[in-house]
Amino acid sequence: MAEADTRDERLFPPDPTVRAITRELYAQVKDLPLVCPHGHVDPALLADDQPFPDPAELLVIPDHYVHRMLHSAGLSHGELGLTDLEGHQQETDSRQVWRRLCENWHLFRGTPSKLWLEMELADVFGIHTRLSAHTADDVFDTLLERLAQPDFRPRALFERFNIEALATTDDATDQLQHHRRIRESAWNGTVIPTFRPDKVLDPENPAFQDSLRQLSEVTGEDATTYQGYMSALRQRREYFKQLGATATDHGHPSAFTAELNDVDAEKLFRRVTEGTPDPADAELFRGHMLMQMAAMSLDDHLVMQLHPGSIRNHDPQLHTRYGADKGADIPGTIDYVNGLRPLLNRFGNEPSLRFVVSTLDETTYSRELAPLAGYYPAMLLGPAWWFFDSPHGIRRYRELVTETAGFFNTAGFNDDTRAFASIPVRHDVARRVDCGYLAQLVAEHRLELDEAHDTAHAMAYARAKEVYDL
Amino acid sequence: MAEADTRDERLFPPDPTVRAITRELYAQVKDLPLVCPHGHVDPALLADDQPFPDPAELLVIPDHYVHRMLHSAGLSHGELGLTDLEGHQQETDSRQVWRRLCENWHLFRGTPSKLWLEMELADVFGIHTRLSAHTADDVFDTLLERLAQPDFRPRALFERFNIEALATTDDATDQLQHHRRIRESAWNGTVIPTFRPDKVLDPENPAFQDSLRQLSEVTGEDATTYQGYMSALRQRREYFKQLGATATDHGHPSAFTAELNDVDAEKLFRRVTEGTPDPADAELFRGHMLMQMAAMSLDDHLVMQLHPGSIRNHDPQLHTRYGADKGADIPGTIDYVNGLRPLLNRFGNEPSLRFVVSTLDETTYSRELAPLAGYYPAMLLGPAWWFFDSPHGIRRYRELVTETAGFFNTAGFNDDTRAFASIPVRHDVARRVDCGYLAQLVAEHRLELDEAHDTAHAMAYARAKEVYDL
Amino acid sequence: MAEADTRDERLFPPDPTVRAITRELYAQVKDLPLVCPHGHVDPALLADDQPFPDPAELLVIPDHYVHRMLHSAGLSHGELGLTDLEGHQQETDSRQVWRRLCENWHLFRGTPSKLWLEMELADVFGIHTRLSAHTADDVFDTLLERLAQPDFRPRALFERFNIEALATTDDATDQLQHHRRIRESAWNGTVIPTFRPDKVLDPENPAFQDSLRQLSEVTGEDATTYQGYMSALRQRREYFKQLGATATDHGHPSAFTAELNDVDAEKLFRRVTEGTPDPADAELFRGHMLMQMAAMSLDDHLVMQLHPGSIRNHDPQLHTRYGADKGADIPGTIDYVNGLRPLLNRFGNEPSLRFVVSTLDETTYSRELAPLAGYYPAMLLGPAWWFFDSPHGIRRYRELVTETAGFFNTAGFNDDTRAFASIPVRHDVARRVDCGYLAQLVAEHRLELDEAHDTAHAMAYARAKEVYDL
Question: Looking at its record, which EC class is this enzyme (chains A, B, C) (predicted)?
Answer without folding.
Answer: isomerase
